[in-house]
Amino acid sequence: MLDLTQSIVICALLGSVYASCPPRCECSEAAHTVKCVSKDLRSIPTGIPGYTRNLFIIGNQISRIGPESFKGLDNVTTLSLSNNRISEVESHTFARLRNLRSLDLSNNQLAVIHPEAFTVQNQSLRELNLSRALYNHSSVMDLATSLRWSSLGTLRGLDLSDNSLIYLPSRIFSHLASLRRLLLSNNSLVAIHNSTFSGLENLDELDLTLNALKTLTEEALRELDSMPGAALLLGENPFTCTCGIEPFALWLNRSQGRIRDAESLVCSIPESMRNTSMLSVGTKALACHQRDAGADLALQTSYVFLGIVLGFVGLIFLFVLYLNRKGIKKRIYDMRDACREVWEGYHYRFEIDSDPRLSQVSTCTEA
Ligand SMILES: *[C@@H]1O[C@H](CO)[C@@H](O)[C@H](O)[C@H]1NC(C)=O
Ligand SMILES: *[C@@H]1O[C@H](CO)[C@@H](O)[C@H](O)[C@H]1NC(C)=O
Ligand SMILES: *[C@@H]1O[C@H](CO)[C@@H](O)[C@H](O)[C@H]1NC(C)=O
Ligand SMILES: *[C@@H]1O[C@H](CO)[C@@H](O)[C@H](O)[C@H]1NC(C)=O
Ligand SMILES: *[C@@H]1O[C@H](CO)[C@@H](O)[C@H](O)[C@H]1NC(C)=O
Ligand SMILES: *[C@@H]1O[C@H](CO)[C@@H](O)[C@H](O)[C@H]1NC(C)=O
Ligand SMILES: *[C@@H]1O[C@H](CO)[C@@H](O)[C@H](O)[C@H]1NC(C)=O
Ligand SMILES: *[C@@H]1O[C@H](CO)[C@@H](O)[C@H](O)[C@H]1NC(C)=O
């Protein structure tokens, strides 16, 4: 009797273990799906069934995950850990999920990311969502290191939107050779440099909307041209339509085909140009032309100034002449007398020279 009850209890226990579902989670064997949504969980629950392909542990209080968190889950292809409080990801945390294709860590507070945090044994990872996942901009160096060392050569999509990134470390994406889609929307990026996107020659889509780009320098334009197949989104940036924007505006006109939102790009600074279409900027008179006009004005001003100085010097000269007028008058009379003497002397000698008799006399005496 007692033995029977015991065996029934054991059978029931075995049965529940067999069809187990962790407490506070919903499991569907038919759909190969387990969901633990907004249940105040502090860690990854144990006992997740082996059939699970889609695992959603979202909206909980999980702060730390590591390699021990995901055991015996070979079949998981989609893992979402979004909306938790994860602040640290250890190396090889997901390594044993060797069929993992999509990893969503969006809406977390990653402050420490270890170098091989995203390594998956089979290199099966295709999509990585780190939207609003970084605690602050300081995490970007950790991120760059782990993108370098996590063997992500087969990654197709990377979402880094909503992260307050100010700059991207040089060559941060250079080991993501298969990347097709890179989302950088809603950060605070101020510039694109020479090697910001190096290694992304195969990119299909690059989203740079809602950043802090005031212009795209010639260096940045060259960098974007190094990904000729990538469709670009550039809207909602504070483009500054002053003189230096011209190369960008011309490039925009030239590259309209692949800039999906080219038509909607507008200047936001200066006030006078606000809402002006960036496509019309190339033909508009910008501040640089005003600066040319300014140079002309400066030249004219300097001519006027020179004239005034010369006039002033002339006036002084005349004034000096006026003061010396008596001495000058005397000089002039002296000069006139001197001239007259000289002239008369010449005249006399001319008369002598032209009188043949007198010349003969002179030759006779010489002889
Ligand atoms: C993965 O799924 C297959 C078939 O659905 C199953 O045979 C296998 O046991 C599962 N793996 C694990 C670790 O449970
Ligand atoms: C590696 O991943 C591929 C899919 O990316 C899968 O078909 C294959 O079974 C995986 N290999 C192992 C050993 O899990
Ligand atoms: C990444 O996660 C965010 C928030 O959960 C979501 O809005 C976004 O669509 C996801 N990105 C991709 C590429 O699926
Ligand atoms: C990011 O947070 C850490 C820890 O609070 C802090 O030391 C660092 O200065 C912060 N960095 C930025 C850019 O705010
Ligand atoms: C941009 O990201 C911040 C958080 O970094 C968020 O608060 C804000 O709503 C986002 N803006 C848009 C338009 O998505
Ligand atoms: C930019 O990178 C190229 C190689 O990709 C290099 O030859 C060139 O000197 C770099 N220019 C600057 C300004 O750093
Ligand atoms: C710019 O255009 C937007 C929408 O086209 C409009 O809402 C906004 O008021 C305009 N701003 C100015 C300063 O004209
Ligand atoms: C922009 O391109 C159009 C043709 O697409 C051309 O007619 C126009 O002259 C170009 N504007 C400038 C400033 O190059």
From TrEMBL:
UniProt cross-references to InterPro entries, sorted A to Z: Cys-rich_flank_reg_C, Leu-rich_rpt, Leu-rich_rpt_typical-subtyp, LRR_dom_sf, LRRNT, Wnt_signaling_inhibitor
A biological process term (GO) from this entry: negative regulation of canonical Wnt signaling pathway
Domain LRRNT, chain residue ranges per copy: 20-54
Annotated signal peptide: 1-19
GO annotation, cellular component aspect: plasma membrane
Keyword Nucleotide-binding: no
Name this polypeptide is given: Trophoblast glycoprotein-like
Organism: Parambassis ranga (Indian glassy fish)
